[in-house]
């Protein structure tokens, strides 16, 4: 059996940056054990398994696809991350899919994406944040950033993400160089409601940082993700927060992980947000077994 496979870096136009993942194009479902073995073999942050929603369709003509599962290199099954739709759309356009908008059916619901010039645009819900009492999550924040100054603290109940805004006095380099011990998060989080931690910082329009409205890093050890290189779902939360803070609907963001990634953000009037990024296809081939 042969399965077409891509390895792709998302939210970047340079190989070996952004968010790395593998995409396998399936004609039929595979056994769960085989899913796991392939993901372990690929050894990337995520391996996505995509198949046509309607068996009679063609990968170059279908508008609807099914994303039944994504699996990390540690064998952890995930419900389908938004950034993978960006990656998969790029793969399908690489195969010359003729549709302008593609829809992916995942365990998290339907996700739509389209290509605009050299960017792939994800159509995501916009998640609101609400003030969070510091005392409830103080131990978790201490484990994450020590004695650094927190300027604002918010919680997104829809995504179970805690947003920690660092003081505007800090530069981007402080966030980039921060050493975070995510193993301590699991014991430090006592409320049971936090499943993802966002650290964020207001942008700096000077020097090399010109143009970025805000920066972030994202950690989710509750799902086996110590640090996610670039995260679409976290920016669906960040977009809501920073739009309110900056009074802007069009923003440019940068996630300051080791690999780094840039995201273009556009809030819509229907309560959703378009998050766009570029994609670099690193490798294309076939799995044979």
UniProtKB/TrEMBL annotation:
Keywords: Isomerase. The active site is at 46. SUPFAM superfamilies: Diaminopimelate epimerase-like. GO terms for cellular component: cytoplasm. InterPro entries: Phenazine_PhzF-like. One of its GO terms (molecular function) is isomerase activity. Belongs to the PhzF family. PANTHER family: PHENAZINE BIOSYNTHESIS PROTEIN (PTHR13774), PHENAZINE BIOSYNTHESIS-LIKE DOMAIN-CONTAINING PROTEIN (PTHR13774:SF17). This is PBLD protein. It comes from Eolophus roseicapilla. The lineage of its organism: Eukaryota, Metazoa, Chordata, Craniata, Vertebrata.
């Amino acid at each position: 059996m042969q399965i077409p496979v891509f390895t792709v870096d998302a939210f970047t136009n340079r190989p070996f940056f952004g968010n790395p993942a593998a995409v396998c194009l399936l004609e039929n479902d595979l056994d769960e054990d085989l899913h796991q073995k392939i993901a372990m073999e690929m050894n990337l942050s995520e391996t996505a398994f995509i198949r046509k929603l309607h068996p009679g369709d063609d990968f170059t003509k279908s508008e609807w696809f099914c994303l039944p599962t994504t699996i990390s290199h540690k064998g952890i099954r995930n419900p389908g991350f938004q950034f993978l739709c960006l990656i998969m759309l790029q793969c399908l356009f690489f195969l010359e899919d003729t549709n302008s908008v593609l829809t992916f059916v995942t365990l998290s619901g339907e996700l739509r994406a389209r290509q605009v010039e050299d960017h792939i645009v994800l159509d995501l819900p916009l998640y609101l944040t609400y003030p969070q009492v510091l005392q409830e999550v103080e131990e978790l924040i201490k484990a994450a950033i020590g004695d650094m100054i927190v300027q604002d603290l918010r919680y997104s109940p829809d995504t179970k993400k805690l947003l920690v805004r660092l003081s505007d006095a800090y530069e981007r380099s402080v966030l980039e160089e921060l050493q975070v011990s995510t193993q301590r998060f699991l014991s430090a989080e006592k409320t049971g409601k936090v499943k993802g931690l966002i650290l964020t910082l207001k942008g700096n329009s000077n020097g090399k940082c010109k143009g970025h409205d805000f920066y972030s890093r994202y950690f989710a050890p509750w799902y086996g993700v110590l640090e996610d290189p670039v995260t679409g779902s976290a920016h669906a939360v960040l977009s809501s927060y920073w739009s309110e803070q900056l009074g802007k609907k069009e923003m440019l963001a940068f996630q300051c992980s080791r690999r780094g990634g840039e995201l273009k953000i556009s809030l819509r009037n229907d309560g959703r947000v378009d998050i766009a990024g570029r994609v670099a296809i690193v490798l294309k081939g076939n799995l044979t077994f």
